[in-house]
Amino acid sequence: xxxxxxLHLHSHYSDGSFSPAxxxxxxxxxxxxxxxxxxxxxxxxxxxFFAAAAAAGLTAIPGVELSVDEEDREIHLLGYLxxxxxxxxxxxxxxxxxxxxxxxxxxxxRLQAMGVRIPMRAVEAAAGKGTLxxxxxxxxxxxxxxxxxxxxxxxxxxxxxxxxxxxxTGFTAAEAIALVREAGxxxxxxxxxxxxxxxxxxxxxxxxxxxxxxxHTGHDAADTLAVCRMxxxxxxxxxxxxxxxxxxxxxxxxxxxxxxxxxxxxxxxAAAGQPPPSPG
Length: 280
Ligand code: AMP
Ligand code: FE
Ligand code: FE
Ligand code: ZN
Description:
single chain, alpha/beta, TIM Barrel, binds adenosine monophosphate, binds fe (iii) ion
């Protein structure tokens, strides 16, 4: 058994700082055999990711991370091995991008009501190619000198329950799971302990969820064990990834901090009904 995988990576097509090619370069440098690009609500980085991975000899796994806002919680759903040209998937993601734009505008209105003026173009500049999100509003707040760090922007304004927080009205969990499955993909619940949604697993499993992300930089050993037990109980796959966003938040890149054993990669392909890849 050779190769290890990092199945949770962001690029500048969402709220990461690296290009897909840079993600591939770093995955190779970290000695990984496979990597999955899982940008928030977009598959636009995948063509570049695949081209770079083919050139570098890395197994590239197509992915996406869909966000679902429920009343008192946020569910992040990873979709692996999706047919990313799928028309229904693309149509849904386009709708989602429009909604993200409206949501960013609503957050700016809330900030303005508190006397904090941030123009939309500052948020757009922070996002670049990326799907507009709270991290970009946070970056614009930092740029304007309103806060000193991204974290302060979340803690004061943008985190759930803070004054500029605006929930999403996009998918329900059932719709997100169905969307991934209808595109031939494997739906996996992202960082369930960090999101505080491990208790939702029975309900989500009944909706067609196929796996749980046990290994994650936001999970300690006890968290990982709890997720693995839950996966066993519900006969779900186990996955893992670093959730690297590059250097966007002034962080040391997390890529490669999670090294998922190859057997889990093989199970993921089997669950999608696809032939096994060879480690890159
Ligand atoms: P959005 O998709 O616009 O709701 O933004 C979600 C992203 O914001 C997450 O993927 C994280 O990258 C970041 N984020 C969410 N909550 C926090 C928080 N409390 N502190 C720092 N970053 C956060
Ligand atoms: Fe993110
Ligand atoms: Fe997430
Ligand atoms: Zn993520």
